[in-house]
């Protein structure tokens, strides 16, 4: 058995899904491939999710909705930004839309915060905001007893897949 095949089989055993291809930071809608519907289902989310809706105002940002209308309305949403021009400003803009979050301590990030009971005009939802270098992302999903574990497991996939 080749080393690559052994690594892939090991990944399948540990994660339950194959690794997605690398996604380049700043690649517009392609950044939404950092998470897949299969990833969500493996995390116990979105059993009825069938696809992805991507809003890409420019190649450096992508708003990816996998279920529902948005994360703030009870759906599942990943927003990714190549913040090379303004990391601090991008971070502060996202945090400005949140109640005071708590430090998350997500491994592999320069900063991360979490709010497991966020409200924005709809039902409570859980949100994790993280930064590694120029990558800034926000991941939102329905609130619940497993939300923190789901956020962390999905955020780790984003960090593993997004390059740049």
What do you see in this structure?
This protein is α+β, with helices and mostly antiparallel strands and 164 residues long. Helix content is 27%, strand content 30%. The strands form two sheets. Strands 2-3-4-8-7-6-5 form a seven-stranded antiparallel beta sheet, sandwiched between helices. Strand 5 (102-103) and strand 6 (111-118) form a beta hairpin. The protein is globular, with a radius of gyration of 15 Å.
Euclidean distance between termini CA atoms: 31 Å
The total beta strand count reads: 9
What general form does the structure show?
A: globular
Described by strand count, sense and barrel closure, the largest sheet is: 7 strands, antiparallel
Computed structural class: alpha+beta
Pick out the low-confidence regions: 1-15
> What gyration radius follows from the Cα positions, in whole Å?
15 Å
Strand content: 25-35%
In DSSP terms (H or I, runs of 4 or more residues), the helix count works out at 4
What order do the SSEs take from the amino end to the carboxyl end, as H and E?
A: HEHEEEHEEEEHE
Classify the helix fraction into a percent range.
25-40%
Strand order of the largest sheet: 2-3-4-8-7-6-5
Summarize the structure.
With 164 residues, the chain is α+β, with helices and mostly antiparallel strands. It has helices at residues 3-15, 37-42, 87-96, 147-161; strands spanning 23-24, 53-58, 61-67, 76-82, 102-103, 111-118, 125-132, 135-142, 162-163.
């Amino acid at each position: 058995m080749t080393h690559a095949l052994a690594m892939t089989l090991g990944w399948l055993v540990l994660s339950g899904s194959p690794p997605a291809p690398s996604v380049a930071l700043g690649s517009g809608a392609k950044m939404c491939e950092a998470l897949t519907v299969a990833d969500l289902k493996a995390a116990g989310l979105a059993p009825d999710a069938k696809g992805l809706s991507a809003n890409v105002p420019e190649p450096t940002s992508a708003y990816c909705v996998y279920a529902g209308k948005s994360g703030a309305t009870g759906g599942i949403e990943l927003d990714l930004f190549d913040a090379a021009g303004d990391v601090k400003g991008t971070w502060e803009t996202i945090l400005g839309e949140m109640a005071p979050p708590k430090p998350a301590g997500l491994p592999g990030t320069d900063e991360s915060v979490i709010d497991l009971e966020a409200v924005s005009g709809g039902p409570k939802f859980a949100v994790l905001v993280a930064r590694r270098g120029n990558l800034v992302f926000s991941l939102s999903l329905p609130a619940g007893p497993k939300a923190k574990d789901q956020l962390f497991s999905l955020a780790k996939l984003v960090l593993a897949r997004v390059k740049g």
